[in-house]
Design brief:
Its cofactor is pyridoxal 5'-phosphate. GO terms for molecular function: carbon-sulfur lyase activity; pyridoxal phosphate binding; transferase activity, transferring alkyl or aryl (other than methyl) groups. The protein contains 16 helices and twelve strands. The chain has 402 residues and is of the alpha/beta class. The protein has two domains: 256 residues, Aspartate Aminotransferase, domain 2 (3-Layer(aba) Sandwich), CATH 3.40.640; 133 residues, Aspartate Aminotransferase, domain 1 (Alpha-Beta Complex), CATH 3.90.1150.10. The longest helix is centred in the C-terminal third of the chain and has 33 residues. It is globular, with a radius of gyration of 22 Å. The chain binds pyridoxal-5'-phosphate. The site of pyridoxal-5'-phosphate has 16 residues, from helix 5 and helix 10.
């Protein structure tokens, strides 16, 4: 089967994922360039008016306008689709554009969305504020409580939405159980797979219908460009996603797609390197801070589930300093190598204070219900030398009086 990139999936599908990350979806122009070409063009031209007509009819293959498809973007979409085991990918300008598309493409007034309450802050805004404004009902439940999910299902439930591990608390949600629950009730399961990355967790293999990413995080992973992608079946794309995508204009820029294509070549190396470091940092912090969370720590509550659906524990370490906001701020201000930022999944280690930044838009009681306390630190472990990182964190804990 040929796809938009003209590459042959019957071959690329058989490749190991590592080979796919480096090569899948690449197409060469007549110049035989080694690296993928960057097609910075808004529109395309046609040899004749008849060719233009045929392309618009769908009788002839080819590109028409980069709001719909673009060769560089198509290469990135094809590579991501293969990695995820999806038929189709649609790359978007930001991660939030992908999350919004994964919901808005098919929902209509009168539908109901059931979601985990521990979500990226802007995803909670979509569910709590925006969708209800359009007559779409939403309910959030404790993502770790399968009974709560079951009880939350209504006759009009169309989508179950979750992220796992959840941002920033690292709660693990059982993807397979949710996929079964969704399908028994005629709904679809959408998974925001940002924290786990396609290297560590493949929700579609566990039954998810739609997987969405912020490619801003590990996929670019070098702090350069915003982006997102929605991955789904051919049927969902044809029935819902493509029309939404082309008519609402959430496309990714060819430049960002090119950056992300190059980034995918090293994604696995970077994620595994970050996991190695995260395991060391988690262990060192756990010796000092009682509430330290990482799936590989012996006290991690959902370790069995994390191991069942993730290849490794991931790149994030979360811990709660008992002295609250003041201690958290002193700790962060004392870091010498690690940056203070709200990004994550970067090759540079980053410390975030979710209470005052990423989750500030949530009401205080909602933050507390989610376990986002004033002392909570989210630590995205990068690719620096592990001993340097551990030393930096230890001296900052000393200064904060932990
Ligand atoms: C960052 C993030 C998003 C949003 O992505 P942007 O690229 O910032 O728009 C969505 N979900 C999760 C889990 C994220 O970490």
């Amino acid at each position: 089967m040929k796809n938009r990139t003209g590459t042959d999936r019957s071959k690329t599908k058989k490749w190991d994922r590592q080979t796919q990350m480096v090569r899948a979806g690449s197409m060469r122009s007549d110049f035989g360039e080694m690296s993928e070409a960057m097609f910075m063009t808004s529109a395309f031209t046609y040899e004749t008016a008849e060719v233009a007509e045929a392309r618009f009819d769908g009788r002839a293959e080819g590109f028409t306008y980069s709001r719909q498809t673009n060769p560089t973007v198509a290469m990135f979409e094809e590579r991501m689709a293969l990695l995820e085991g999806a038929d189709v990918g649609r790359a978007t300008g930001t991660g939030m554009a992908a999350m919004t598309a994964s919901l808005m493409a098919s929902l209509r007034a009168g539908d109901h969305v059931l979601a985990a309450r521990a979500l990226f802050g802007s995803c909670r805004w979509l569910l709590d504020t925006y969708l209800p404004r359009l007559g779409i009902e939403t309910t959030v439940v404790d993502g770790t409580d399968l009974e709560a999910w079951k009880a939350g299902i209504k006759p009009n439930t169309k989508i179950l939405f979750t992220e796992t591990p959840a941002n920033p608390t690292l709660e693990i949600v059982d993807i397979r159980a949710l996929a079964d629950l969704a399908h028994e009730n005629g709904a679809l399961l959408v998974v925001d797979n940002v924290f786990a990355t396609p290297v560590l967790q493949r929700p579609m293999e566990l039954g998810a219908d739609i997987v969405a990413y912020s490619t801003t995080k590990h996929i670019d992973g070098q702090g350069r460009c915003l982006g997102g992608i929605v991955l789904c079946s051919k049927e969902f794309d044809e029935e819902h996603l493509y029309a939404y995508y082309r008519h609402t204009g959430c496309a990714m820029s060819p430049f960002n797609a090119w950056v992300n294509l190059k980034s995918l070549e090293t994604l696995s190396l970077r994620v595994h390197g970050m996991c190695d470091n995260a395991e060391k940092v988690a262990k060192a912090v756990a010796d000092r801070v009682v509430d330290t969370r990482h799936p590989d720590l012996p006290n991690f509550k959902q370790q069995n589930l994390a191991r069942a659906q993730m290849d490794r524990g991931g790149t994030m370490v979360v811990f709660e300093l008992p002295g609250g906001r003041d201690q958290a701020f002193t700790f962060m201000n004392s870091l010498e190598i690690v940056d203070i930022s709200n990004n994550l999944g970067d090759s540079r280690s980053i410390a975030t204070h979710p209470w005052s930044t990423t989750h500030k838009a949530l009401a205080e009681e909602d933050r507390l219900e989610l376990g986002i306390t004033p002392g909570l630190i989210r630590f995205s472990v990068g690719l620096e030398n592990a001993d340097d990182l551990v030393q930096d964190v230890m001296q900052a804990l000393d200064k904060a009086g932990v």
